[in-house]
User: Fold Cytochrome b561 and DOMON domain-containing protein from Prunus dulcis.
Amino acid sequence: MASSSSPPSLAFLGLTLALVLLISPAHSLTCTTQTFTNNKLYSHCIDLPTLKSYLHWTYDSSNSTLSIAFVATPAKSDGWIAWAINPTSTGMKGAQTLLTYKKSDGSMNVKTFNISSYNDIVESKLAFDVWDTSAESSGGVFRLFAKLKVEEMESVNQVWQVGPSVSNGFPVKHDFNTDNLQAKGSLSLTGGTTTPTTTTGDSRLKKRNIHGILNAVSWGLLFPIGIIIARYLRTFQSADPAWFYLHIFCQVSGYAIGVAGWATGIKLGSESEGVVYSAHRKIGITLFSLATVQIFALFLRPKKEHKYRFYWNIYHHTLGYAILILSILNVFKGLDILNPAKHWRSTYIIVIIALGAIALLLEAITWAVVLKRRSTKSTKPYDGFNNGQG
Assistant:
């Protein structure tokens, strides 16, 4: 008896056709399978190396006309995408930019920006002629079309970008993740070799990682450990004077490494014009200043019998706890900026929780020791002072 079900080959074919119909061409894995509703055709296309973007283009050398179709997904549904040619450099400064976004009525708007500086981004005409600009969207993907007059050039520096939103017709700043910073390259107009410009981006990323590691180790680990040692170990007579030297070692080492991390951050800031992380930068400068005052105050520390020692202790402890809070806060600010793999953030959170648990345990133990000494009518709980070291 013949089976009432379809043969396996027909079932497989039907499933394949259904998937083809469901998948939008703009979401295809390569640019070669993408089509446009206006049926435009281009001589060349490339899968751009970052931000899941694609570029289609045709260059007519007889009249120096470059026709392009840039395809990308905005960072958010109400965001924007942009493609640019930079005739003077490889980055954003100097980029002649085409940008599109979806207006409130659902239609697409195309604007041009001549980015002469990072601090003065205004809508304006480009350095070369642009016409036939238009855009379309479907399935969350934007497609930007334009024709440009590109005279006597075999290749151009291209820059592309995606952003999260538009405010009053002006694009909101994009992210500064690795993919965003490396969204640039050299485009051969005749369809020859097209290469991404990643050397500078890779070097800057390496410096960012070094900056993050140095500061996480110094401000985020050594300083908290040094404070725990000073607060709790000095209660135990057997730990004297070792606790003092361990405390000094942690704080001085943390300061030295922190200075290196701070200097790396200053260098990064000078090399990244227009990229400003105000809160992280201000906290970092504050930390460096407070820690510098704290370290040099050691040379002004009065002996324990001096009448000003009490006030010096108040200042020293207050400044120390302020540095502790700001240090941990700024490490998390830095993690937000670097956006590393999740396990790095998780690891640091676990370390901080562990240090907090150790501090709570030692707090209970030291209070028990102090109360026990008081119960034996000790005139003063041992405070870790020995030979003038407090």
